[in-house]
Amino acid sequence: MDRRCTSSRLRLMLTLHCLPQLSDVAELLATELVTNAVRHTKGPAALRVRYADGVLRIGAWDADPTPPAPPPRVAAVGAEQGRGLDLVRACADGWGWYPVATDSGKYVWCELGAA
């Protein structure tokens, strides 16, 4: 999955749906979710974006049913990784995950309000 292509498509989609104010944060969150799915699992991954009732939901599916590691309360100074879900938690209005079917992977999501 090419992250630059995904980012530009997400930005274009949000602009076409009159939500350009969400582009920067949505791009950051989508990148973090997809990066985690690719970096920490073996197998395919996919990004899904949905807008309904004033809420943008961004999610990443991967084939590994293992729950995501909880974000650290405080990232170590100088740490170059391990901050992805911490960024998601800090920038999104809500986030979570759920297993997909029996051993078919998981879906990690976050939400942004359009207001």
TrEMBL record:
<dbReference type="InterPro" id="IPR036890">
    <property type="entry name" value="HATPase_C_sf"/>
</dbReference>
<dbReference type="InterPro" id="IPR050267">
    <property type="entry name" value="Anti-sigma-factor_SerPK"/>
</dbReference>
<protein>
    <submittedName>
        <fullName>ATP-binding protein</fullName>
    </submittedName>
</protein>
<keyword id="KW-0547">Nucleotide-binding</keyword>
<dbReference type="GO" id="GO:0005524">
    <property type="term" value="F:ATP binding"/>
</dbReference>
<keyword id="KW-0067">ATP-binding</keyword>
